[in-house]
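Annotated sample (chain length 291).
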Amino acid sequence: MGQPRSERGLGIALVIAAAIAWSTAPFFTRLLPFDPWTILFWRGVFAGSLISVFLVAMQGRAALWQLVVPGRGSLLVASLSALGMISFIPALQMTNVMNVAVLIATQPFVAAALAWLWLGEAATWRTLIASLIAFAGVVITVGGVQAGADLGGLALSCLMVLAISSMTVVIRRHRQTSMVAAAALSNFMGSLVSLPFAHDIAHVGGNNLAILAMFGCLQVALGLTFYMLGSRLLPSGQASLIATLETPLMPFWIWVAFREVPAVHALIGGALVIGAVVADIAGDARKRRSS
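Output written by the structure step:
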């Protein structure tokens, strides 16, 4: 029996919401004058705390025990999510942001390959072609891979892509489990690992603490929770494809907040990404209506 249309639609809506939330990262980062590890520490504390509130609201207080004794699937998802977040910070420090963005755009292909190898879940040609178009759009948006990149930064970017792609497949494998506790645990793990490297913790206060709270609650807590709930309802390749909407939406928030008009190449690339995602979703809807 096929997956219910309403369930598939909910998954698409949740992953789109996750991409919108994640895309606000440059806006919050622009407002904070701290080292990346301090931002990651506080962001994780606030995000993990809010997700824990979601967990209690959805499953009751007893569900907090999942943070102490997580199941095997939840622990694997939390570890992969934390690894992805932790790899992202030094990757940005060691190589050009454009290189990181281009490598992140390969995630739909990596997730589809892992899902096929592990779950026997073959991505449709429609999704693969749409992913290729979205990848081209990301390359155009960020300007392409830059020469002279640090190999360590590229290696960490690849590790991040592998970690998040693997996380997507594990969530799909354990789709009967909500993974909300895993989302909270991953943020607390990230904060713990960041603590020794965070040099500006003592200097955070006042308005900056409020910005960090919004960063953690709006960008991470909502984004990660929506993604973990939504990606279990979708094929791994399609969930990763929809998540690429994050890249073209990033310049939008910078334009809204700081009046920085996106370059023409960013608008063209963004249109390709959005068009590819919309075409894939529309094609999936037509196929399900005709079946």
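Annotation: The mean pLDDT is 89.
Annotation: Residues 264-290 form the longest helix (27 residues).
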